[in-house]
Amino acid sequence: MAVYTEVPDAELSAFLAAYEIGTLLSYKGIAEGVENTNFFLHTTAGNFILTLYEKRVNEGDLPFFLNLMEHLARRGLACPQPVRNRSGEALGRLCGRPAVIVTFLEGVSVKAPGVDHCAALGRALAELHAAGRDFGMSRANSLSVGAWGPLFAQAGSQADAVSPGLSERTRADLALLETSWPTGLPGGVIHADLFTDNVFFIGDALSGLIDFYFACTDALAYDLAICLNAWCFEDAGRTFRKDMAAALIAGYEAVRPLEPAEVEALPVLARGAALRFMLTRLVDWLNVPPGALVQPKDPREYDRRLTFHRQARDARDYGRG
Ligand SMILES: Nc1ncnc2c1ncn2[C@@H]1O[C@H](COP(=O)(O)OP(=O)(O)OP(=O)(O)O)[C@@H](O)[C@H]1O
Ligand SMILES: N[C@@H](CCO)C(=O)O
């Protein structure tokens, strides 16, 4: 359960008093998620999410994330909206942490997506990229290829205790990716963490996207590569579902066709995306803060995906004919 920061009732009441969101009827810590502390708030005015930003979120980046959510909603994308307090501010402080209330988005995430979910995700991802095109702010991707070596150094010699041979495999992947990472691909605002838990459906229809706290300015096709990893593997990373990948890419290209350079770069982008999530999971796995209510995610699931990516030859192996 991702609650890193306990919030005493009195502090919560004082914080909420600054907002016009009715009277608190109930609240609870949210079980899902690993990055930030989230509470579900039920008030006389409706449902809201209270987020306290933790380790990986830099406070200076919050205006980018909050403005982005507002911008995307203006462009018609369904995503949570920051709630401003009586002074007109969206960003507050609670228990020493930056804190924001956002609107509640209806829908449920799918645990085991199918081909149709992947097709819908592809369309939504391309729509997100299109909606972000005229967003005026930018933020470098702080978890791109340049960050992977330092992340690996944090795990150091403990990697092999998590999975035999992981150090050596990671060293080789890093060396290859650091020299072959593509530059100059079409760029813009990307979500950068569009895992199944961040995409909501009502029935079969995609109802919205949440969790924009890794959003940044980077290659658009890298976002697609992240989704290929997050949505198109089964059995904890052992089985690649080419049919789901094909549906994801086709859904994306129905809105925004990929350029030839992006198609060519897909295998290396997918390999890099897998390494990025393997590394952040590895560091988190080895460093659970004392007292935190969180279930860290298993880095071995991404080590297994890397086995697939290492043998992939071109985009056809990812279902892009
Ligand atoms: N605006 C929202 N509307 C409805 N539910 C939400 C909203 N924001 C968060 N949630 C719920 O809280 C959970 C955790 O939120 P979120 O994914 O933002 O946390 P996180 O710690 O950043 O997680 P992650 O591990 O995906 O980075 C979500 O899976 C969802 O169930
Ligand atoms: N989506 C990430 C966690 C949040 O960044 C993962 O599954 O590793």
TrEMBL record:
GO biological process: threonine biosynthetic process
Keywords recorded for this protein, A-Z: Amino-acid biosynthesis, ATP-binding, Kinase, Nucleotide-binding, Threonine biosynthesis, Transferase
Top-rank EC class of the record's enzyme: transferase
Domain of life: Bacteria
Membrane-traversing stretches: none
Domain Aminoglycoside phosphotransferase: 27-258
EC number: 2.7.1.39
Molecular function via GO: ATP binding; homoserine kinase activity
CDD domains with a match to the protein in the record: HomoserineK_II
Pathway: Amino-acid biosynthesis; L-threonine biosynthesis; L-threonine from L-aspartate: step 4/5
Pfam family, one: APH
Family label: Belongs to the pseudomonas-type ThrB family.
Name of this chain's protein: Homoserine kinase
Organism: Methylobacterium radiodurans
Gene from which the chain derives: thrB
